[in-house]
Amino acid sequence: MMALVNWNLPMVDAHHLSASAGALSFVGGAGDFDASGRIRHPGDLDRQIEGTMVNVAEALASESCSLDDVVRLKVHYTADRDDWEVIAALARFFKEDPMPVISTLPEPLQPFSGQTIQIQAIAQRGWQTQVDVRSVPRPVPMRRRALFEGRPVTAGLRAGEFIALASLTAEDVDGMVRHPDDGVAQTHFIMERHAETLAALGASFQDSIKLEGYHFGTLTREQWVPFAKARASYFREPGPAGTVVPCHRLNPKGALTKLEVIAMRELRNTFDKYIPREDHWPARVWDWSLPLPYRQAIRLRDTVWLGGQVPQSPYGNKAVRVMDGQLIPQTRFIMSYVQDLLRPFGRTPADLKLMVCYFASTGTEAETVVFVNALADCVGGALPPMTLVPQPTLHSSGGNVEIWGVAQG
After folding, report:
1. What confidence tier does 4 reach under pLDDT thresholds 50, 70, 90?
2. In this predicted structure, what is the pLDDT of residue 2?
3. Model-level pTM?
4. Distance in angstroms between the alpha carbons of the first and the last residue of the chain
5. Most buried of 105, 317, 324, 357, CB within 10 angstroms?
6. Angle between helices 365-379 and 327-342 (to 10 degrees)
């Protein structure tokens, strides 16, 4: 008999810890929680990693998956550690090579009291036994190689049709950041590394379904435009669903941006082939203020991937923020965009199987609970697995939330 999941998030709203869409299974922001939603080891990163991974395994078991089925971990941590230490601590939970892609992001805040880490997982049942498994190793700086005892760290993994690339800064093989003080040049450095990894996996940027990115600090529009154009230059329409948000910590010192990619490509008659996708962009849903190749919602292989939704005015591309500085009204407004985007696919927010939320906060659990209550009002049923990422500031002093997700297609 499958063991019951014995942990929960500290909230009264009904919520799922794991869910599946198509061939993929998702765990939201798992932490070192017990059955009542309390952190077992407040402030202790090492023990929280242990407890969190136990909880990830339990949540995956509800979807008939195990840790061996994980293809990507997304890790938000708050501690005086560097990314390589955190990756190494997590790698030991995966005994087989290639290990999954492990993407990390240091954070100044966590959603719940005493929390130092939350881990999101994407799994695909039985991928290690599939015929088409390919991986590309990630260069590890010499001073960090001992952490892995000779094991290769995964830069990119192809598990059948699903492809995940690790989140990268412009760190080189010597552990130094290329092009310090030049975020646009760093962007090109990262995207060129991703292009090489995709090519080695039999794919290209045109196979991308999701771009996730971070830039250090809040940017003015004049600062944002060169970053946006640099990223966009690697895609042509129809591009992936995109989410790029500010962050307030990056490793190593001097890193100004961090980027990662999820893609899908099929193997047919021994040839790698593009997978057609369906996309919809209702007229009400906002557009960027400069021409970009990204889409707001795409469907393929029974999954719908959403771009990051922000509180910008509908029916246009003037980048006018609505409900300035009001987190909860902006949250409800954004969820109306999510509803608009899912409707042409015959889906509603209740069909979401993963929801990723960046929101402005001073870092208290009470603020997180109020925010989640607003989400619950909009979803219509039990909340999906959620990754909740509080930030001291988001896009500006008045743009307080960005939400994206994956729905059953």
Report:
1. low
2. 42
3. 0.97
4. 30
5. 357
6. 30
What count of other Cβ atoms lies within 10 Å of the Cβ of residue 388? 24
What is the number of residues in the chain?
409
Q: Which residues have a Cβ under 8 Å from the Cβ of 75 and sit 6 or more positions away?
A: 86, 90, 102, 103, 104, 105, 117, 118, 119, 120
Q: If DSSP states are collapsed to H, E and C, what string results for the chain?
A: CCCCCCCCCCCCCCECCEEEECCEEEEEEECCECCCCCECCCCCHHHHHHHHHHHHHHHHHCCCCCHHHEEEEEEEECCCCCHHHHHHHHHCCCCCCCCCEEEEEECCCCCCCCCCEEEEEEEECCHHHCCCEEEEEECCCHHHHHHHCCCCEEEEEEECCEEEECCECCECCCCCECCCCCHHHHHHHHHHHHHHHHHHCCCCHHHEEEEEEEEECCCCHHHHHHHHHHHHCCCCCCCCEEEEEEECCCCCCCCCEEEEEEEEEEEECCEEEECCCEECCCCCCCCCCCCCCCECEEEECCEEEECCECCECCCCCCCCECCCCCHHHHHHHHHHHHHHHHHHHCCCHHHEEEEEEEEECCCCHHHHHHHHHHHHHHHCCCECCEEEEEECCCCCCCCCEEEEEEEEC
Structure confidence by residue, pLDDT tens digits, 45-80: 999 999 999 999 999 999 999 999 999 999 999 999
Residue type, 262: I
The Cα 37–Cα 237 span in angstroms is 44
Retrieve residue 120's tokens. 């999101």
Checking if the pLDDT of 228 tops 90, the result is yes
What is the amino acid identity at position 58?
E
Instruction: For 332-350, write each residue's pLDDT tens digit.
Output: 999 999 999 999 999 999 9
